[in-house]
Amino acid sequence: MGLQGKVALVTGAAQGIGRAIALRLAREGAAVAIEDRVANDRARETFAQVQATGARACLIEGDIGKLEADRQVLAQAVAQLGRVDILVNNAGVERRAGFLDVTEADYDLVLNVNLKGVFFLTQAFARHVRERGDGGRIVNISSVHEELPFPHFASYCASKGGVKMLMRDLSVELAPLGIAINNIAPGAIETPINAHLMNDPALMAALMKNIPLKRLGTPEEVAGAVAFLCSDDAGYMTGSTLFIDGGLLWNYAEQ
């Protein structure tokens, strides 16, 4: 699934799934722009690991929940690596609260990062591709919660449902530019965002009842699917969601 000569921009790449994606694309031959909200130690570690593969790389900071930052992130990636062929919209946040207790601040944070950021960074990328005229790939890291209700996370579900329909619409609108766009919807993955879950045996036992494969997924398994969607093997795929969830979506029951 070689990506030699391609340049990828991966948002939220400081840790977890984002780091695994950056490393996998680098190992497939792509140069990688590593984006995170701030250039923290975790982001610098991802940068070092990507460089260690021999790939060209750069580190970019920006709050993708803000329109001007989205445009600047794309512009910086192009300035440092020459172009961007692949956009991976991975950055995401969640806030737990019962629906009656959700604050406007938390709602705005989740929707701005998870949906507004995807919308306007994708717009900046599509304009860049239009100027070049040679197509591109977009992969959104969505969630099983683009389909599956998740009580106490209404804003998160709304954002991921929005990403689902945005992807479907853009698969039609961006096809004339030679851009293919797809979602990956992970289930329960071994990442820092799930640390509380992995450290609670009771929560893990309840979750395992809902996962037919009886284990959490790994960031590397998500990254492998991203590499596939960015490769020539997936050249005719657009407008689809790949679920990577061990069977969770079709076996879930609220306890």
From TrEMBL:
Superkingdom of origin organism: Bacteria
GO MF, any single term: oxidoreductase activity
Residue span(s) of domain Ketoreductase: 6-187
Keywords from the named record: Oxidoreductase
Pfam families for this protein: adh_short_C2
Family assignment from sequence similarity: Belongs to the short-chain dehydrogenases/reductases (SDR) family.
PANTHER family, alphabetized: OXIDOREDUCTASE, SHORT-CHAIN DEHYDROGENASE/REDUCTASE FAMILY (AFU_ORTHOLOGUE AFUA_5G02870), SHORT-CHAIN DEHYDROGENASE_REDUCTASE FAMILY PROTEIN
Protein name: Glucose 1-dehydrogenase
Species of provenance: Frateuria terrea
